[in-house]
Design a protein that fits this description.
The structure holds 2 protein chains of 2 kinds.
Chain A: H1 2-15, H2 27-60, H3 69-82, H4 84-116, H5 118-132, H6 136-147, H7 151-175, H8 179-187, H9 192-226, H10 235-244, H11 248-276
Helix pairs in contact in A: 3-11, 4-5, 4-7, 4-9, 4-10, 5-7, 6-7, 7-9, 8-9, 9-11, 10-11
Chain B: E1 5-16, E2 19-31, E3 36-40, H1 47-55, E4 62-67, E5 70-71, E6 79-82, H2 94-104, H3 109-122, H4 138-151, E7 156-160, H5 168-184, E8 188-193, H6 196-202, E9 205-210, E10 215-221, H7 230-233, H8 236-250
Parallel strand pairs in B: 3-8, 3-9, 6-7, 7-8
Antiparallel strand pairs in B: 1-2, 1-4, 4-5, 9-10
Helix pairs in contact in B: 2-3, 2-4, 3-4, 6-8
The chains are: A mainly alpha, B alpha/beta.
Chain lengths: 283, 263
């Protein structure tokens, strides 16, 4: 009896307009892959075009200080051979990773608290909103006063930038959880702890990832500023001294390193995001 | 024996930006064990409010509600709710959705699996346990939500326009499926709809509500036996009952005799 009923349902599933197709349709996946293939070609094309325009400008223009791709590649090789590129990159990467991880690690629980408890929102939000519009660069003199010019001060500035971008996104994520999900959990017998752990956290995951990616961007953006604080090494430091010695090709090397590392770390986050939020209806 | 649901002179007043809105005005209704009752009425008649009150998601301004003889204090797994927007957790597979409530009841993994599979099969989703909600059609999602509500073994099912978002053909199929499921695992059902046809086809008793303020304007018995068939849907007797409900919904003034005492 149960079987017959099930069959009739499946039959209905096949004929009903909204139920078209007995199995989940695999087509969107394939379509997405095809689209991903064509977009990769566009990426390559626009990259080649950009480099070509830059080269053309450097070669035809009479600006001695405008480095072309060959000069930059030469500088890059020299940096690798002499070790200064790796040294500066390591120093910067360490600061960004430390500041970013600390910022995100504090922002996610803070955002959850703000979304869940009124008192937490009331106490934290004014500070967050206030400091959000103040560029970290403007805080540097004060940071020097309180934390000195050591590594702590630099990481703190990056931490602040990461924290402020991520905490807002997490908070928004918790606030935007569909109340129907919460009600659905409650009528199934869920208490507050279960609702938090099994509904609020997964439902706000997409927002948290957006927050983390914005935080990563702010972390790198703040790096150069943080290395104004008498850093002995770091990509920002390297670019500042290159500026003084008119080594413009070295500045381009620094820009490319920061851009490439930021891009790679963002891709890493994107992989995590895809894995944890692939349940989303649209992407 | 006490009725399954006893709504006793319940009034619900909302505070809105334009002042107080009386959503339900002194409404009383008893629903017996095993009954299939539909609530039908235009928007603003307070039918969803009534369901949310019984579910424990809202509290009455005055009056009281008993479920199985005990006053309602917050939501609980004895009252399963099926929402119009399906409310499946999109990050969980169909099976994990059905297991959600079972896990809260402390069932071990094997028991959860078996119960979930049983109810997925009952609604015809036996092969779709590992599908995510986004991979299911609207009708399949709602069937999964019905399986999830059934699985925790509630004595009462509250359905808030569950087929409202489906197209007409799927909707008719879902009505038959729901009645088939209901006849196998008989529970008391309170079903909300704004579709007169649906209200009459499913119910043993149709409660007609009128808006501003929300009141019960008519209660219509449907003496057709279960299982309901297409022939019944097209019969003169059905048309007659349908006509009375239709007039009650669309011309509430004509049936102004207040028959809200229910029992």
């Amino acid at each position: 009896m149960a079987n017959k009923h099930a069959e009739s349902l499946l039959e209905a599933g096949r004929t009903g307009p909204a139920d078209a197709g007995g199995a989940p349709p695999p087509t969107p996946e394939r379509r997405r892959m095809r689209r991903a293939g064509s977009i990769a070609w566009l990426y390559l094309a626009t990259f080649v075009l950009g480099i070509g325009l830059w080269w053309l400008y450097a070669a035809l223009g009479d600006n001695e200080l405008a480095p072309g791709p060959p000069e930059v590649i030469r500088s890059f090789g020299e940096g690798l051979r002499n070790g200064w590129l790796l040294e500066h990159t390591q120093a910067s990467l360490g600061r960004v990773v430390a500041g970013f991880l600390l910022g995100v690690a504090l922002a996610i629980p803070a955002g959850f608290l703000m979304g869940w408890y009124r008192w937490a929102r009331g106490m934290v939000e004014p500070w967050v909103q206030f400091f959000r519009t103040v560029p970290p660069l403007a805080l540097i003199p004060l940071v020097i006063v309180f934390l000195g010019i050591g590594e702590t001060a630099k990481i703190f500035v990056i931490f602040l930038a990461a924290f402020l971008s991520c905490v807002i996104a997490t908070f928004q994520g918790v606030r935007n959880v569909d109340v129907t999900f919460v009600n659905a959990a409650r009528v199934l017998g869920a208490g507050d702890a279960t609702i938090f752990g099994r509904v609020i956290v997964p439902a706000s995951m997409p927002y948290i990832f957006v927050g983390m990616r914005v935080a990563l961007g702010s972390s790198w953006a703040t790096l150069v500023a943080s290395e104004l604080l008498a850093a002995p090494t770091g990509l920002g430091r390297m670019m500042q001294s290159a500026q003084q010695f008119l080594q413009t090709e070295r500045i381009v090397v620094g820009i490319i390193m920061i851009g490439a590392l930021g891009f790679a770390m963002d891709r890493l986050l994107l992989v995590g995001e895809r894995r944890l939020t692939s349940w989303q209806e649209v992407r | 024996m006490a009725p399954m649901i006893s709504i006793q002179s319940v009034t619900k007043v909302y505070q809105s930006s334009r002042g107080e809105v009386t959503s339900l005005d002194d409404v009383s209704l008893d629903v017996d064990r095993g009954e299939f009752v539909t609530l039908v009425g235009p928007s603003g008649c307070g039918k969803s409010t009534m369901l949310n009150l019984v579910a424990g998601l809202l509290e009455p301004t005055s009056g009281r509600i008993l479920v199985d003889g005990a006053p309602v204090a917050g939501p609980g797994p004895d009252r399963g709710v099926i929402f119009q927007q399906y409310a499946l957790f999109p990050w969980l597979t169909a099976r994990k959705n059905v297991e959600f409530g079972l896990r809260l009841q402390g069932l071990n993994k094997r028991e959860r699996r078996e119960r979930a599979q049983h109810y997925l099969e009952l609604v015809g989703l036996g092969r779709f346990g590992s599908a995510l909600p986004k991979e299911l059609s609207g009708g399949m999602k709602q069937r999964c939500a019905i399986a999830r509500a059934y699985a925790v073994n509630p004595s009462l099912l509250l359905m808030d326009e569950p087929f409202g978002a489906l197209d007409a053909l799927t909707r008719v199929q879902m009505q038959d499926d729901l009645l088939a499921t209901w006849q196998q695992e008989r529970r008391t059902v309170l079903f909300i709809t704004h579709d007169v046809d649906e209200a009459v086809y499913l119910a043993g008793r149709v409660v007609v509500m009128s808006p501003h303020p929300g009141r019960i304007s008519d209660i219509v018995d449907v003496p057709l036996p279960y299982p309901r068939t297409e022939d019944m849907r097209l019969s003169p007797q059905f048309a007659q009952i349908r006509g009375r409900v239709w007039r009650g919904v669309h011309h509430p003034s004509a049936t102004s005799t207040l028959r809200g005492d229910g029992a």
